[in-house]
Amino acid sequence: MAARTGGAGACGISLIAVPSDAQGFAVGKKLDKLRARSSDTTELFFQDCLVPARYLIGEENRGFGYIVRHFQGERLVLASFANGLMQVMLEEGVRYASAREVFGKPIIKHQVWRHRLTDVVTLIEASRQLTYFACYRLNRTGHALKESAIAKLFAAESAKKVANEVFQLHGGYAVVEEYPICRLYGEAAGLTIGAGTSEIMR
To answer: Among 32, 155, 188, 189, which is disulfide-ready with 127 (CB 3.0 to 4.6 Å)?
Structure first.
């Protein structure tokens, strides 16, 4: 966990490993989430919890710096996840639009949706290139805080736009659990929160 061990601000944070049998440590209820349901998320309680100093990770009061450096990789993972999710949503949209007929022809034959899906393809490609560049910078220099934040911001916001487009494309069927877009829409919604919100990225 991250805990305040020093003064105010980022310089007073330390990382501490808390043994599961530590006195005062308790696990609360499992949280029911909109997305990432395969990853358990629970409440954790530290009531007068005492942990021996040997459980300190790294140097005291340097924890925030460790977290920020770790975020480079985490943000690139989420950007890559968003890119993959967008590709899946696009494929679902094209599949549905090719099969569903409106006014005597498949939805995908209507120019308005051909244009909107082209915008989706453009967003996905731009997002991929930003992610690839951030990965390149991290591999070459070991430092890509700005590039990973940009990639994560763009990918996460783009995923929500793509989800909205494909959701709209499905019409009334979008809210039916039988259709993958119903679940994928929820997955996209949380991407602008994890590993730092879009506001933090900016």
So the answer is: 155
